[in-house]
Every structure is written in structure tokens, then in C-alpha cells.
Backbone:
């Protein structure tokens, strides 16, 4: 089933994002953070004014999350750091994989447990299962939670914090029972294993009704996946390779979508940031600390 496309999409950047990723809504400041992994840069967008601010990063930046005290947590190739956007200073926290040079850190999100969950990916083609998923506590302790992954992606949690979602972009979207106090995962079940035509699973977000919205990076669509399993519907988007959706705006009903630059079938499509209005609001993500 296809969702009716929204009436219009808004494009928020006038330049190319080589590998746009990791949009996260900052409800306190009413701004959107997102990254271009390869620039490498962190961006902040004020949707009300259209003002875009660039924060250059010293290494490829896979993802960003909110932290207490107005800071951010960023996953760089050189490790996980806390970032102060006011002073533009980085504070090293931990490197989950200091001796795995073939990998880089990828999708990351702050969970209901106040920890930063971040996965790695095999950074060459063909992708090999050298990657893992890590849980990083506010005091810098790092625990490997999953292994044998090609491209760790699609982190999200249910609105009540008791279900965790994770995807391997070269495989399946899975759900786990999740303890929001201890961060323990259990009872893994596969929800869907999308084909390239359906859209391999990239980044994701969850709405207030508990549905999981996954960027179908190979199919130019956002897939709505049921917590019970299966793709319920898909929404075509005007970009060939969407990488991650994020609910934001004052009512959390604006869906922001990053994308990457691609040239499928000889047709170039530049990575960008777009948004559209949704019928349902999203669930807020947590803060580190």
C-alpha cells in the first residue's frame, strides 16, 4: 500500500549534502540538528527563520544526539565526543573501536536510558559483518551490545521506551524488548527484511502511535513498519536516496528527511534536507546524561 504523497515538500538547503544523515529535533531550542558525514560538518537549522549554521567537524561525523546542559553528543571517526555549540569545543568521551580501522561510527541515538547508542559500519564495498552496536553511559563506559553487523542503522524506541528498534542496512529491521532503566535488550524478533525495490533500511523514527518510519535508501521512499512486523505503507519522496526521517516542529508533525548524493541509472541526484507535514506527531528522543 502506498500512502498518498503529502501536498508539498520543502527543501531546506541550497547546496549538496554528500551524505546527509542523523536529523534530530531539539525541542528546547526549536531547531534541527543534522550532519553531512563526508563534509564533515554538523548543521543547525532554524525552520522558522530558515537560518542555517555550520559547525565544521575534524573527522567524518556519523551521527548526533542531544545532551544535557545544551551540549550535543557526536560520533566521529575518531570516537564519541561531547560538543558545545556555543564554544564550538569538543570533549573526547570514548572510542568504541580504536583498533578497527576498516570501520567507522554510523547511526547513533540517545535512548530512554539516557545513554548514547551508536553502531559502526564496514567502510568499504562489499560490506562485511565487522560492525557492532554499542551502549555508552554518561561516565564514558562503553558496552558492546550486538555484533556481526554490516551497517548498523535504524535505531529508535517506542514512545513508552519498552521496545527498541535496530536495522542492519544489508539485512533486517529487528525489534527487542527494552528495559529503559538498565538498557538491557531481550526477545529479538525480525519485523521485515526489505528488498532493494522496497528500500533497504537506513535511519528511522517512531511516531506517537508506535509505528516505525524507515528511510528506504535504495527506493526513494519512507516505509511505515508495524511494531508487529511488515511494511504497512510507503511514502514516495522527491529524493532518490533518503537516509533518515525525524519528527520535529512545534507540534512534532513535520517530518524532516536527509538524503545522500547518488547517480543511479546515470541520473545524478544531490543529497539534501527536505520536510513535509504528517497527520501524526512523532515521539521525542532522549537526552544523554
Residues:
Amino acid at each position: 500500500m502506498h500512502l498518498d504523497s503529502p501536498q508539498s515538500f520543502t527543501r531546506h538547503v541550497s547546496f549538496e549534502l554528500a551524505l546527509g544523515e542523523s536529523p534530530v529535533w531539539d525541542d528546547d531550542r526549536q531547531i534541527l540538528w543534522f550532519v553531512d558525514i563526508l563534509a564533515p560538518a554538523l548543521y543547525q537549522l532554524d525552520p522558522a527563520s530558515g537560518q542555517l549554521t555550520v559547525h565544521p567537524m575534524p573527522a567524518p561525523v556519523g551521527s548526533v544526539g542531544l545532551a544535557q546542559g545544551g551540549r550535543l553528543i557526536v560520533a566521529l571517526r575518531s570516537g564519541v565526543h561531547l560538543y558545545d555549540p556555543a564554544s564550538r569545543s569538543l570533549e573526547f568521551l570514548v572510542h568504541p573501536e580504536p583498533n578497527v580501522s576498516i570501520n567507522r561510527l554510523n547511526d547513533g541515538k540517545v535512548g530512554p536510558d539516557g545513554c548514547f547508542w551508536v553502531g559502526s559500519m564496514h567502510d568499504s564495498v562489499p560490506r562485511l559483518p565487522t560492525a557492532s552496536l554499542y551502549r555508552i553511559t554518561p561516565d564514558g563506559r562503553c558496552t558492546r551490545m550486538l555484533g556481526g553487523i554490516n551497517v548498523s542503522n535504524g535505531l529508535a524506541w517506542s514512545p513508552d521506551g519498552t521496545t527498541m528498534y535496530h536495522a542492519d542496512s544489508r539485512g533486517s529491521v529487528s525489534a527487542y524488548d527494552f528495559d529503559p532503566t538498565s538498557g538491557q535488550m531481550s526477545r529479538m524478533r525480525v519485523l521485515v527484511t526489505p528488498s532493494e525495490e522496497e528500500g533497504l533500511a537506513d535511519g528511522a523514527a517512531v511516531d506517537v502511535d508506535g509505528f516505525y518510519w524507515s528511510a528506504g535508501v535504495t527506493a526513494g521512499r519512507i516505509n511505515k513498519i508495524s511494531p508487529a512486523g511488515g511494511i504497512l505503507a510507503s511514502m514516495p519522496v522527491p529524493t532518490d536516496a533518503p537516509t533518515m526521517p525525524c519528527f520535529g516542529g512545534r507540534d512534532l508533525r513535520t517530518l524532516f528527511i536527509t538524503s545522500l548524493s547518488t547517480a543511479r541509472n546515470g541520473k545524478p541526484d544531490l543529497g539534501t534536507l527536505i520536510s513535509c507535514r504528517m497527520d501524526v506527531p512523532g515521539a521525542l528522543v532522549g537526552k544523554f546524561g
